[in-house]
Write a structure and sequence with these properties.
alpha+beta, 4-stranded antiparallel sheet, 36% strand
């Protein structure tokens, strides 16, 4: 039996015009007796897959933990907001 992909969610990739991220549950990804995985793929223009990672469900908790640690690390690095000098949420000034 071939693998079965079940879409969980698709959303727009930040800082791009029309790239998307698609999360799917994949049943029997490597054949009849393989365990399911989560597929996270990026699509250019919503159509062409440009990258993909498959995570076994047994690693999901560790994966979430690493993502949260990454967010905490990013938040801990001081940086200037790009439009602070303009007193605006987006370009163009006030």
């Amino acid at each position: 039996m071939p693998s079965k992909h079940i879409e969980v969610k698709t959303f727009k990739l930040a800082h791009s015009t029309d790239d998307t991220v698609r999360i799917e549950h994949v049943e029997k990804p490597y054949g009849e007796y393989s365990s399911p995985v989560v597929s996270i793929a990026v699509y250019s223009h919503g159509k062409t897959k440009v990258s993909e990672i498959e995570i076994p469900y047994e690693n999901i908790s560790e994966f979430f933990k690493a993502l949260n640690e990454s967010v905490a690390l990013c938040d801990s690095i001081p940086r200037n907001r790009i439009h602070d000098e303009l007193n605006s949420d987006i370009g163009g000034g006030a």
